From TrEMBL:
Signal peptide residues on this chain, from the entry's feature table: 1-22
Sequence segments annotated as region (Disordered): 225-245
SMART domains for this protein: Zn_pept (SM00631)
Name listed for the protein in its UniProt record: Peptidase M14
Keyword flag Zinc: yes
Database matches in InterPro entries: Peptidase_M14
Organism: Lentzea flava
Amino acid sequence: MRIALALLACLGLLLSPSPAPAEGPQTTFVLRVPAALGSSAQRLLGLGYDVLEQRDGDDLFVIGDARTADRLRSDGFRPSIETAMPPSQWAPRSLGESTYFGGYRTVTAHIAHLDEVANAHPELATVVDYGDSWRKTQGAGGYDLKAICITRKRPGDCELTPTAPKPRLFVMGQLHAREITTGDMAWRFIDDLVSAPDLTAMLGSIEVWVVPIANPDGVEIVESGGDTPVPHRKNVNGTCSSGQRGVDLNRNAGSHWGEVGTSTNKCSEVYRGPRADSEVETQALESLWRKLYRDTRAPGDAAAASGDTTGAVISMHSYGNYVLFPWGWSTQKTGNDAALRRMAQDMAALSGFRAGQPGELLYNASGATDDWVYEDLGVPSFVWEIGASSGTCGGFFPAYSCQKDVHWPKVRSMLVSAMKAAPEPY
């Protein structure tokens, strides 16, 4: 929903240069930017703007402050204000607090939840520590990186070996820290897997692995804002004098790393890092995936994974209402395009989302985890962009009530579809 014209005139974002920024926290804007599919969209990404996973016709959307609109105009774009988010106040939160912003769970609550589920359902659930966040590796706080494996346990289940007896569905939330809907979807999925009869009935023939918080250091910054969450996207490894510190973990994976849709600017929201797989969070995920899945695909961009491939990987993001599949770095088709497209369309039909490759619906970007999973292992991998672009239930920070009533019914149906497809995806 657009801001009133009075706000536009006051800010001067359309008619005159912006005033010097005031001291203290700044209002964050979502800016509508005409950038058609193809060269215009890729140029916008190549300049390092924080481009959202959202498109409306020929328009993309950029998040930033008043100075961002000036930069866009100087780069030849014509921005207008779409929405505004109030300034966030970053203040230390008590370790005893388990929720923020109306009910969203903190990192510590998510980690505790995994242990609680495993203790209450030892016949179904196993918690796995698969690494450490960057801050923890530096002795500066941080977190264990935790996953939970849920299945009706038999010998060999939930073991870190690609020759495990059951096919595996892997679901991940909050790789981008500010996408708080995705952590909540993971929480709800875990609870339903151990309590809802239709899902528990499926656990005799499949393992489900869930990482609710893939970027806990970044999420700690988000939740520090309390009722005005901080829109932090990246991890926290690095310094920056004019923007957010950190590396974009969804541009850091070693699949066509450093190519289209990334930036070498450390302050860019799509900063790719100093080298492929440089971040401990990326390394830990890739190591875990290699322990969970057989490699069934030969090298080469056009090679197909074998027909006996099992499993699937879902990375939940927000927002835009899309189901995306490889390749993300190019509109070139994968060797398994028909099967990936069919799976994506089946999931999208249940939710009302749109399905396609990123370059077909949004723009191309390299170094994404879903491309890495498919390229390195041949496993079907998807990105879900959950939520509309506007309204109470849209954007990065929807009202908490939207999770149960709006997002979860759609996401749950897609998760069931993915569970059914995982044994024989191709």
